[in-house]
Design goal:
- The complex is a heterodimer.
- Chain A is built from one helix and nine strands.
- Chain A is an alpha+beta fold.
- In chain A, the strands form two sheets. In chain A, strands 3-9-8-5-6 form a five-stranded mixed beta sheet, with no helix packed on it. In chain A, strands 2-1-4-7 form a four-stranded mixed beta sheet, with no helix packed on it.
- In chain A, β1 and β2 form a beta hairpin.
- Chain A is globular, with a radius of gyration of 15 Å.
- By secondary structure, chain B is mostly helical.
- The chains are: A alpha+beta, B mainly alpha.
Chain lengths: 105, 283
């Protein structure tokens, strides 16, 4: 039964996956570029977080409920979707002075 | 240096708290011998985390960051599966076996449950360990303000500090009498498993493999912030998040009733089996 439910979710995920928008988000010594991302309400985003520094970073957001470590020089994809209008802040948990936000309109 | 120590302390604390629950649980139930299993799970996870850090870092990286995240989610889900299966299996067999078989079977059953606890220790330490290794690796490679051995020492000190913090925390439970303690830790253990399950689901949502269904069911940040002391503690122990998605809430809230149902079914099966075999029920 749970296998069926999981299968259903995967199919659902695949269906939703078709309409996604990729947004590049770079992390350098001085912080996030761009520092602010705009998105439409309900949109499915694929945040491509690239760590341009020489040290691992941790992309984290309490508002988005996401947390990902990015090794130096690597890019990870972080998905967010179905968001209501508002400001969703994120930061680098290993260097907390680096901050940015996703603004959903 | 100080920053390295503090970050390693924070990163290790979650794992230390969960391992602390497991060790305290075993110590208080008089199963000190079983603590080996938990230590083996935790130390195995440290080795695995270092191996993974090496495999996914540097120019010769063999493992993409997304593959690494999938693997971490898999470890979390697998550990919860192993623990759940062991608990149900134990429950079922403990009722079926009586008389002479009891003593020999007890040992096998105890071992079975310990494997479940070791799996949880492994998952908890592995989850934080990979992050800690990647962090420490970067700091050491960059070496902005100190030598590599000094930085590694600062990292190790941070991890040791986390272990001490967890130890103090569980010492705080020592005043509870045993019965209350077991009621608390037995339930806490299942809540920990539910929290790890939810963490695995959260990773799969972030990877785009599962839909959140509704990205934010509620927002309890006004009541308990994720970065407050209590919020972080509950986050470490039972996976508290102030803004969970519907799928995570569903995963967490179906786990406990599902376990209850599985245990009840194991009860019924064991009872009917012992009715069919009267020789075995003579205790």
């Amino acid at each position: 039964m749970s296998a069926l439910a999981l299968g259903l979710l995967l199919v659902l995920a695949a269906a939703v996956r078709a309409e996604e928008r990729s947004v590049a988000l770079a992390v350098a010594e001085h912080g996030f570029t761009p520092p602010e991302i705009e998105a439409a309400a309900g949109e499915r985003l694929r945040l491509e977080v690239t760590n341009q520094t020489a040290v691992a970073i941790e992309f984290e957001s309490f508002e988005l409920n996401r947390e990902r470590v990015v090794p130096p020089g690597r890019t990870v994809a972080v998905y967010v979707s179905g968001l209501s209008p508002g400001r969703y802040e994120f930061f680098d948990d290993f260097h907390q002075e680096r901050r940015g936000a996703l603004v959903v309109k | 240096m100080i920053e390295t120590l503090l970050i390693m302390w924070r990163e290790s604390l979650e794992a230390a708290l969960i391992v602390g629950i497991l060790l305290t649980y075993l110590a208080r139930s008089g199963e000190r011998a079983g603590m080996r299993y938990v230590w083996a799970g935790a130390l195995g996870a440290v080795v695995a985390a270092v191996a993974m850090g090496v495999a996914s870092n540097g120019a010769a990286a063999r493992l993409g960051p997304d593959a690494q995240e999938v693997l971490q989610a898999g470890v979390l889900l697998l550990a919860v599966g192993v623990l759940s299966w062991m608990v149900v299996w134990m429950h079922r067999n403990a009722r079926q076996i009586g008389g002479d078989l009891r003593r020999r079977a007890d040992r096998a059953l105890a071992t079975g449950r310990l494997v479940g606890l070791a799996a949880i220790a492994f998952a908890a330490v592995f989850r934080e360990g990979v992050e800690a290794v990647l962090f420490l690796w970067g700091v050491v490679v960059q070496r902005a303000d100190a030598s590599a051995p000094a930085l590694l020492a600062a990292g190790a000190a941070g991890a040791a500090l986390a272990a001490a913090t967890a130890w103090l925390f569980f010492r705080g439970f020592a005043f509870l009498n045993l019965q209350t303690f077991f009621r608390v830790t037995g339930i806490l253990l299942l809540l920990v498993a539910a929290g790890l399950l939810t963490a695995g689901v959260n990773k799969l949502i972030g990877l785009g493999y599962l839909p959140p269904i509704e990205p934010q069911v509620w927002n309890t940040a006004w009541l308990l912030r994720d970065d407050s002391v209590l919020g972080a503690l509950l986050g470490a122990l039972i996976g508290y998040r102030s803004r969970p998605s519907l799928l995570e809430v569903l995963a967490f809230s179906t786990y406990l009733p599902a376990m209850g149902w599985a245990l009840h079914r194991a009860d019924v099966a064991a009872r009917s089996a012992s009715e069919r075999g009267p020789a075995r029920s003579a205790a």
